[in-house]
Structures are given as C-alpha cells and as structure tokens.
C-alpha cells in the first residue's frame, strides 16, 4: 500500500475578503467557504498548515515585466482615472465593466495567492511535503505584461520557474474548463515544462486557443498538449480521455514534479462553464495523479458557483490527505449555501442551469486521444527527456568552439548543457550535471581537448 502523503496546506484567511465588484463572477469568498468545509471535516489535522508570505514585486518580476508590476503596485480605484493608457495596455478596467477590474486591494490580493503558490513550491523543493495545496492560486490566464480572464499575476508560471531550479522536468496539468493559455505560452519553447490542458474549445470560447494541433514550438515542440472538448462532457467520457493521455505523458516525459490546476468551472452547473462533471469525476483526476507519487503542487483556478467550488476543493483535499469524509456536510458558517441537500456530492445544477447534452461523440474523443498519443510518441528524443539516460561518454566540453570535432549527439549534449546552464539550476541538479561530467571520464591534461570519448 502506498504510504500516506505528507501534505502542506497554504491558506491566508484574508484571501477570501477581496472583492472584484458586484456581479463579477470571480468571488474570492469561495476560498473562505472551501476552507470552512476543510476545517469542518477536520482535514487540517491531516496536513501541515501554513500562512503564506506575501510575494514581493521582485518575485513577480521573474515572469512579469517590470513596467506591469509597477503599474499593478500603483493603481487603485482612486487614481485609475489618471492611468487610462496604461490600463488599456495591461487589459484592466473599471469595476463592473471589465473582466479584470481595478478593485480595492488588487496588489495585496495578488501577493497572497502568488506567495501561497511559491511557498507550496518551496515545500516540495525542500522535501518537507509530497503535496502542497493552494486553493487561492491557479490564475492560469495572466500574461507577462497583461491581465486576462480575471487573472493578474500568473502564480503557476512563477511556481514552475521556482520548481525548475530543483526539478529537471515539470508537468503542468489543467482541468479548468478554459484553456491554460498563460502557462502554455510562458513555456512554449522549452522541453523542461510540459503543459497539458483539457478544456472547451471551439475557436470562440475564451480564451479562443488550445486546439489539438497546438503542440509547442522549437525545443518545446510536442511539450504542449491540448485536449479540446465540446459542451456537456460527462464523467465517463472525461475519464476515458484523461487517464490514457496522462498515463502516456507520465510514461514518456517522466516528470519529476507536477503542478495541477483544478479549476472548478468544469463542474456541472457552473456559471461560466459548459461541462457536466461531478465532484467525484473532478476529484478522480486528482486521485489518479496522486497515484503516481510524484511531488505535486495543487492549485485552484476558475469556478463560479461558490457552493460547488467549496464542495469540490474540500473533496479534493480529502483525497490528497487520504481521508474518508461523510457525504453529509459538516456544520459550517455558510450552512445555508448548501441547501437543500447539505451534502458533499449533490446535484450541482442549479434551477437556472440549462442542461447541455454531451456533444463529445465516442468517435470525436477517440480521434482527439489518438492524435494526442501520436504527438506524444514524437516527443521521444527530446533532449531534456533523454538527459537522465545519457551515457557518460557523451560528455562534452561546454566551452568548445570546435564544431567539426563533435558528432550530432555530442552537439546535442553540448546544447543541452548550455541550455541547462542558462536556467539557473538549483544545487542538486547542478551536482547531477557535474557528476555526469565526471563520470564522462575527462582525461588527459592537454587542455585542448574538446571532449573525451570512450
Ligand atoms: Zn476557467
């Protein structure tokens, strides 16, 4: 039997107090409601609980532009009228009129959810946790210099950049109903991060990207996986496409850390979503990934029916902590939200929900799955993926200028080592590369040798 995972739970009670404005679908309050269920089920006894640090502007600038962070730091509902040009440039606007409004406390809000993801990454890196949970994170649409889709700072990209200091390959998985475009874009050119997003796609649905043919670019070719789905996908269809693709990704790519975005807008009855998943099926994705025993940072994301988001993330916290919980919800401060069933696994569709039939035919899903699996087979041979298996004899002097002396394999290793050197490795990975070099049997003392083979 697998041993119980050590779980770090990162939560700041203040995160639920921020407000995007009346009628805006994104309600940070949902984090507070989810937290209440987690406490009610006494799951906090199964985890190490931490209050996060507030991410600094310098930490945010590791992905975002200096100008954009400066703008977010300065702007408030009171001074925004003087910053109209910059607001347009960074895709933010007035409360009540824009997807990304300038609300009171916008920067401290970003600092909390970003600090939480960074702290979660740190727990995986220092080995004190196998799983880290930050339900306030998962803002996957934010770009380096602009806000998008209710997201201002991309905590996921920043957390992955941290994880890359320590882990050679990171897998990002996204089950939000919307394409994880900000994360995919950030790592589109590297094979050190694989992104896999399961989402609604028809070319119009926000953010209008994520076709199955989008597979990454340059060194990152075949390291972006997109699984476009139609309205109404149900539990069994989702499971049938999710599991084989994830199994193949993990088998092929051999990730050393995972970041999972658990956007709850893929649940049935969501205000913005169009899927038809139950909390059970959503949680099954989490459970499936947990079974691989790879260090994992789990973050939230979309989700626009508060009671269902809370149900989903409480259930997934139970899964991650190997806990059995009752279907009867524990008494909590928001009891009335859960009427009339007061149950964890309830009919998620409110009375206003127009039920969408599953428009994903068996043939369609098989086609998408086969295309994705075919693309993944092309991945074999990607440099960083092979890094673990490189025979020592392939070691080459990174400073060599003598191209003619090198075989194609040696050039590939040389390029790989240069690329790794540029990515600010953590000490443990540097040691790994250095050991690889030593084992390569660097001999002789001429100093002119470009590399030593067998
Ligand atoms: Zn979403």
Write a short abstract of this structure.
The chain is an alpha/beta fold. The protein has helices spanning 29-40, 57-60, 66-74, 84-89, 106-125, 155-163, 181-186, 235-253, 279-290, 306-320, 362-379, 383-386, 408-422, 427-439; strands at 7-10, 48-50, 131-134, 170-174, 193-200, 224-229, 257-261, 296-299.
Task: Summarize the structure in words.
The protein is α/β, with parallel strands linked by helices and 454 residues long. It has two domains: 7-345, Arginase, Chain A; 390-439, no CATH class. The protein has 14 helices and eight strands. The protein has helices at residues 29-40, 57-60, 66-74, 84-89, 106-125, 155-163, 181-186, 235-253, 279-290, 306-320, 362-379, 383-386, 408-422, 427-439, and strands at 7-10, 48-50, 131-134, 170-174, 193-200, 224-229, 257-261, 296-299. An eight-stranded parallel sheet has the order 2-1-3-8-7-4-5-6, with helices on both faces. α5 packs parallel to α6. The chain binds zinc ion (ZN). Zinc ion is lined by residues 176-178, 263, 265, 301-302.
């Amino acid at each position: 039997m697998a041993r119980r995972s050590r779980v770090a739970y990162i939560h700041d009670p203040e995160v639920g107090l921020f407000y995007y404005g009346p009628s805006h679908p994104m309600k940070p309050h949902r984090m507070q409601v989810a937290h209440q269920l987690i406490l009610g089920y006494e799951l906090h006894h199964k985890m190490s609980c931490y209050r996060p640090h507030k991410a600094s502007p310098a930490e945010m600038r590791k992905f975002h532009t200096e100008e954009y962070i400066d703008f977010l730091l300065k702007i408030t509902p009171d001074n925004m009228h003087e910053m109209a040009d910059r607001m347009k440039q960074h895709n933010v606007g007035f409360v009540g009129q824009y997807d990304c409004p300038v609300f009171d406390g916008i920067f401290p809000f970003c600092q909390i959810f970003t600090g939480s993801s960074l702290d979660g990454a740190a727990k995986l890196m220092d080995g004190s946790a196998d799983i880290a949970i930050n339900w306030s994170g998962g803002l996957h649409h934010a770009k380096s210099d602009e806000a998008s889709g209710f997201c201002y700072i991309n905590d996921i990209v920043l957390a992955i950049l941290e994880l890359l200091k320590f882990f050679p390959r990171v897998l990002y998985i996204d089950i939000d109903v919307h394409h994880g475009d900000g994360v995919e874009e950030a790592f589109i050119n590297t094979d050190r991060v694989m992104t896999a997003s399961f989402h609604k796609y028809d070319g119009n649905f926000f953010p209008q990207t994520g076709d199955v043919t989008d597979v990454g670019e340059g060194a990152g070719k075949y390291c972006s996986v997109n699984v476009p789905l139609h309205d109404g996908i149900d539990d069994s269809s989702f499971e049938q496409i999710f599991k084989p693709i994830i199994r193949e990704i993990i088998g092929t790519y051999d990730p050393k850390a995972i970041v999972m975005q658990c956007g709850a807008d893929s649940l049935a009855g969501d205000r913005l979503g169009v899927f038809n998943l139950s909390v059970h099926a959503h949680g099954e994705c989490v459970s499936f990934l947990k079974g691989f025993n790879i260090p994992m940072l789990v973050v939230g994301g979309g989700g626009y029916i508060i009671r269902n988001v809370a149900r989903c993330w409480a259930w997934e916290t139970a899964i991650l902590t190997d806990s059995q919980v009752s279907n009867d919800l524990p008494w909590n401060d928001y009891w009335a939200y859960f009427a009339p069933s007061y149950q964890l696994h309830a009919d998620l569709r409110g009375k206003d929900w127009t039920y969408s039939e599953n428009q994903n035919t068996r043939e369609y899903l098989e086609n998408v799955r086969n295309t994705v699996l075919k693309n993944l087979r092309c991945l074999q041979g990607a440099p960083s993926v092979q890094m673990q298996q490189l025979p020592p004899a392939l070691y080459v002097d990174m400073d060599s200028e003598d191209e003619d002396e090198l075989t194609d394999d040696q050039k590939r290793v040389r390029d790989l080592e240069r690329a790794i050197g540029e990515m600010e490795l953590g000490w443990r990975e540097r040691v790994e590369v250095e050991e690889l070099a030593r084992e390569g049997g660097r001999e002789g003392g001429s100093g002119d040798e470009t590399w030593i083979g067998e």
